[in-house]
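Help needed: design a sequence for this.
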């Protein structure tokens, strides 16, 4: 049995310990298990080598658009060449490497929202075990105007608008209190003024990640009294969004 902790393993991602802490937290407790792990985007194989060492009994699979020249001594690692959004290829990888489904899937590939979304939903629905974990790295590319689908971030005010402030003052003021009809009308307007939308940055990966919040809320969205559509539970058991990392656990 390996006694190595994540601190003993050389990290391939200088300055990105944050990611490894998350892997330690969620995968660490099952490190010795016979996990099946798929990583999208493997570059020169540094992360695959890390998984090979850190997960001594795991079957590890990588996918990248560029062919891998890395050598893996354990016989537990295989790589495929192709695009993360190629559903037929994902099916072939699933059938060949994890017919029962993967325990862990990590996406460190294109960091482009649409491509990430296609591979996420295909793999999540068809090739991730119930209770399995799906990690999406580097979702902040959607804030970068230089990225193919990113855009410069524009912060939005959290303050009330001028008319909301005016309504609040008018509603609380003496004249309003002396005329019950006016007071009620101003109260109604005030109440309706808070029925506002909260638009936020939704470009590229940032937009995609925010759509995943809709899946977290789907039981309320399809609530039989208040919602629309056929009621259903979320496909997610839970989701954690942190700096640069999204982690989703598939419902059992
Ligand atoms: C950040 S690097 C991966 C680094 C690797 N996970 C590590 O930590 O050592 C991203 C990789 O994704 C690959 N990539 C980019 N777009 C892709 C796509 N659509 N499908 C599959 N791989 C892609 C690139 O070729 C590149 O090697």
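Sure. Designed sequence:
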């Amino acid at each position: 049995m390996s006694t190595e902790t994540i601190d003993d393993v050389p990290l391939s991602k200088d300055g990105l310990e944050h990611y490894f802490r998350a892997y330690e937290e969620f995968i660490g407790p099952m490190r010795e298990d016979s996990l099946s792990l798929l990583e999208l985007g493997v570059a020169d194989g540094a992360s695959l080598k890390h998984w090979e060492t850190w997960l001594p009994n795991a079957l590890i699979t990588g996918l990248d658009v560029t062919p891998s020249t890395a050598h893996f001594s354990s016989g537990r690692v295989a790589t495929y060449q192709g695009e993360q959004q190629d559903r037929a290829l994902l099916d072939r990888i699933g059938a060949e490497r994890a017919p029962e489904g993967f325990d862990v899937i990590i996406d460190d590939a294109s960091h482009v929202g649409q491509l990430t979304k296609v591979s996420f939903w295909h793999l999540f629905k068809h090739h991730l075990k119930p209770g399995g974990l799906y990690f999406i790295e580097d979702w902040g590319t959607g804030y970068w105007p230089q990225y193919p689908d990113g855009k410069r971030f524009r912060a939005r005010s959290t303050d009330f608008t001028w008319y909301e402030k005016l309504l609040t003052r008018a509603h609380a003021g003496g004249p309003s209190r002396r005329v019950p009809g006016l007071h009620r009308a101003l109260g109604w307007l005030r109440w309706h003024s808070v029925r506002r939308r909260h638009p936020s940055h939704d470009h590229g990966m940032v937009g995609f990640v925010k759509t995943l919040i809709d899946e977290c809320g789907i039981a309320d969205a399809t609530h039989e009294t208040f919602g629309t559509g056929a009621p259903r539970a979320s496909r997610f058991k839970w989701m954690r969004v942190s700096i640069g990392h999204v982690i989703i656990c598939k419902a059992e």
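The chain has nine helices and seven strands.
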